[in-house]
Specification:
With 264 residues, the chain is of the alpha/beta class. The protein has helices at residues 16-28, 43-49, 61-67, 93-99, 117-122, 142-149, 162-181, 201-213, 227-230, 232-235, 243-263; strands at 3-8, 33-38, 75-78, 81-84, 131-136, 153-159, 187-196, 218-224. Helices cover 42% and strands 19% of the residues.
């Protein structure tokens, strides 16, 4: 049965989509992986498929949840990596939950726990994958809550800044709530320090501060800003001459993550 990991923090600009995409790519070298885009921006979708997210209208994670089936909605990236894509219409997910109205104007009332829709959907495919990785929106939303409740583990994305530091306690509370609401014993696998600017002394200070606050949770790996990594959204993972340089920092994070999963 798949191990499900959500990447999240209630703040934008923390490298969630890039890190989720890289993790899915690295995992797919060793395992069968399903990536899930739970952010209506569709950045993970475009990163992994190199297709505009709006081309997935009508065949995305939103429709999969509304119909409670993954059939015809999973997109094959390669032999070991699939994705349930997202687009702008995922923003209508809460409206559908609470009013029954879809973006097409149809009435499809939902009955059940609104935080467990994704969890129930994934029961259909958990046995088909080794890992499921989920990208989330930069806010506490029904999409994020569903992702957390569907996951055994959460990687907390920590961009080295004051605002992200202040977001950590709220997100930890969200993980605790998911553990109580859901059925997956959701827990934090670790805190990944990312988007680090080595030129800034305040970034160094916030790196050290989070390590003092959560010494057992921080990954040893600290991801610094690199142009090659930033250009992954343009060049993708195939035929990318910069790929090895773009991924080199994440290799150590990947090793740490796998070791933590094995030891849980």
């Amino acid at each position: 049965m798949a191990v499900t990991i959500t990447m999240g923090i209630q703040k934008g600009g923390s490298g969630k989509s890039t890190t989720t995409g890289i993790l899915a790519h690295l995992l797919s070298k060793d395992f069968k992986v399903l990536a899930i885009d739970m952010d209506s921006q569709g950045n993970l979708t475009e990163l992994l498929t190199q297709i505009p997210s709006n081309e997935f209208v009508g065949r995305s994670i939103l429709e999969a949840m509304q119909k409670n089936t993954t059939s015809n909605f999973i997109f094959e990236v390669n032999d070991n990596l699939d994705i349930l894509p997202a687009n702008n219409f995922l923003a209508t997910f809460p409206r559908w939950i609470y009013t029954g109205q879809t973006y097409l104007g149809e009435s499809q009332p939902y009955k059940g726990n609104p935080s467990l829709i994704l969890d129930k959907l994934l029961d259909e495919v958990r046995d088909h994958y080794d890992f499921i990785v989920v990208d989330t929106a930069p806010s506490l939303s029904e999409q994020t809550t569903n992702a957390l409740c569907a996951s055994e583990y959460v990687v907390v994305m920590y961009e080295c800044s004051n605002w992200c530091y202040s977001a950590i306690p709220n997100f930890m509370d969200s993980v605790d709530a998911a553990n109580q609401i859901g059925n997956r014993n959701t827990s934090v696998l670790g805190i990944l320090r990312t988007m680090n600017d080595v030129r800034r002394s305040d970034a160094k200070a916030f790196n050290e501060l989070i390590a003092e606050d959560y010494p057992e949770l921080v990954f040893n790996t600290i991801i610094t800003r690199k142009a090659q990594t930033g250009r992954l959204s343009v060049h993708g993972f195939e035929d990318n001459k910069e790929l090895s340089q773009a991924l080199i920092q994440y290799q150590e994070f990947y090793k740490e993550l796998i070791e933590r999963v094995k030891n849980r």
